[in-house]
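Thread: Newbie trying to understand structure tokens

Hi all, I'm a second-year student working on a class project, and my supervisor (Dr. K.) asked me to get a predicted structure for one chain before our next meeting. I've only ever worked with sequences, so writing a 3D structure as a token string is new to me. If someone could post the tokens and maybe explain what I'm looking at, I'd be very grateful. Here's the chain:
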Amino acid sequence: MTATRYLSHATAKVVRYELSDVARSRWLLGYALFFFLATDALLRFGGGGSKALLSLMNVVLLLVPLVSTVFGTMYLYNAREFTELLLAQPVRRGQLYAGLYLGLALPLSLGYLVGLVGPFLVHGVDEPAQWRMLAALALTGVVLTCVFVGLSFLIALRSEDRVRGLGAAVGVWLLFSLLYDGLVLLAVMLFADYPLERPLLAMMLANPVDLARVVLLLQFDVSALMGYTGAVFQKFFGGAGGMAVAAVALAAWVAAPALLGARAFRKRDF
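---
Reply by user tm_fold:
Sure, no problem. This is what the structure looks like when written as tokens:
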């Protein structure tokens, strides 16, 4: 067996081990069960598939980043002894990091998808267009999972102290999910006499949660709920162009934290 094949085999074993370990977690089962019960309840009592999807959008944008951030941070801290053990083996750090990252992002994404899509498969949908909306919501949740797992890994690798790292991770979630829109509105009020369209576009592109919200609302065709930044985005880019810009920006958000985390992992002194 060549060295390259051995390293690839070792990385695959890391991924399989982490997948089986995380899949047995009660937190993951509770996460999937929450989405399953919430989706089922909204389909039964929420007034139809379209209204249920719109309500689920707010849950996804709030809960998926929170769970991915907190779970990812604690996961990497708790895996330190396992990581040190594997670093003593002939496994490249980049491949080990990829195994750890995929070993968490994949089961979190799968748990989310099962909880979200399962009730729709049971109850069915009223209109074919709802499948497109469901696919957009499912894909956006997976993207946000990857983004915030990457951010949580980057934070955990930058901070030795668990409490400080977890606090920083929760702070990042609060900023992107809750505080950011308030800061945007404050900027609009303070600089109302200046042209703000382009700065607001830049501010929206700097927030993955805002990007995900705009992508979903463009798919759901409810422009009245898009807010100020979403309305500016739709005005500048429109339908297909706006979706392409948002998709590229979200892809960059997935790649950047993961790559920065991999770089920090290679330089980290364990």
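A couple of things are worth pointing out once you decode it. The longest helix spans residues 93-123. The two ends are 29 Å apart (CA to CA). Feel free to ask follow-ups in this thread.
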